[in-house]
Amino acid sequence: MYEDLNGKVVVITGGSTGLGAAMAVRFGKEKAKVVVNYYKNEQEAIEIKEKVEKAGGQAIIVQADVTKEEDVINLVQTAIKEFATLDIMINNAGMENPVPSHELSLEDWRKVMDTNLTGAFLGSREALKHFIENDIQGNIINMSSVHEMIPWPTFVHYAASKGGMKLMTETLALEYAPKKIRVNNIGPGAMNTPINAEKFADPKQRADVESMIPMGYIGKPEEVAAAAVWLASTESSYVTGHTLFVDGGMTKYPSFMAGRG
Ligand code: BGC
Asked: What are the beta bridge partners of residue 182?
């Protein structure tokens, strides 16, 4: 438990499912005030709101499409109106779909870049405005991926969005460090979430991915949530511009295990 998170206001984009939902519930356990953003599935968001409240926090749900500037502005403004301020912005909403790069349409490229990268920029910008105007030593956490450093064939739009996120986060961290506003990434590896459900339901594909993880198992969303609360808390007060990989060692060149090479 992180006592300083008690009563803090946190916005989580894509907070109704997957990693976002796990973070919402964990912030609830920390007695935070959680703004659960959802895109389409209101019912899912209502269920997560109830889980946050049951865990000990407060919650509201807000619909927003993070690719739309006016939606992101409204999301942050609603948080501020309902809970009086904003302390922590978690830009988590993301999407992926494999397509051979030579067949990837401009529309698909833009959809992924707009959701994963531009959405995170808009969320960061709106949070920064509030932090600066109100002299808040706020905290921004962007949900990146191991693919901010590992190239990923057929996911060129996804990998480019996460690679972009790495330098966006580092740049924002540097720009706002004098104001003690911290900006960090979490870089999950292969996690048990709806985005991967189909892939991991197939035992062959699951075993294949597991063989790329030195720790040998697909990560649990709660393991990402544990990293998020630490990064949001004062326990990590000197950490900024960093990507915290939560990946069971996936980024550490598993093909070299046991002295190969
Ligand atoms: C993706 C997952 C993938 C993992 C490891 C994540 O960023 O969302 O689909 O399994 O990276 O490749």
From this structure: 139
**pLDDT tens for each residue of 143-157:** 999 999 999 999 999
DSSP state string for 105-145: -HHHHHHHHIIIIIHHHHHHHHHHHHHHHTT---EEEEE--
| Domain carrying residue 157 | 3-249
Q: What's the pLDDT tens digit per position in 101-157?
A: 999 999 999 999 999 999 999 999 999 999 999 999 999 999 999 999 999 999 999
Counting the structural domains of the chain, the total is: 1
Backbone CA torsion sign across 41, 42, 45, 50: negative
- For the question of residue 158 being annotated catalytic, the response is yes
Task: Taking residues 2-30, report their average pLDDT.
Answer: 98
Considering the candidates 2, 39, 158, 176, report the single residue annotated as catalytic.
158
Q: Which pLDDT tens digit goes with each residue over 195-213?
A: 999 999 999 999 999 999 9
Distance 182 CA to ligand 1 centre (A): 25
- Rounded to the nearest whole angstrom, what is the distance from the C-alpha of residue 188 to the centroid of ligand 1? 7
For ligand 1, whether the C-beta of 32 sits within 6 Å is no
Q: What integer pLDDT is reported at residue 255 of this predicted model? A: 95
Amino acid at 243: T
Note whether residue 107 is domain-resident.
yes
User: Does ligand 1 lie within 6 Å of residue 196's CB atom?
Assistant: yes
In a domain, 91, yes or no: yes
- CA pair distance 89, 76, nearest whole angstrom: 9
Residue 254 within a domain = no
| Phi, psi at 245, each rounded to 5° | -75, 130
Q: Is the CB of 189 under 6 A from ligand 1?
A: yes
Q: Is residue 260 one of the residues assigned to a domain?
A: no
Give residue 173's pLDDT: 99
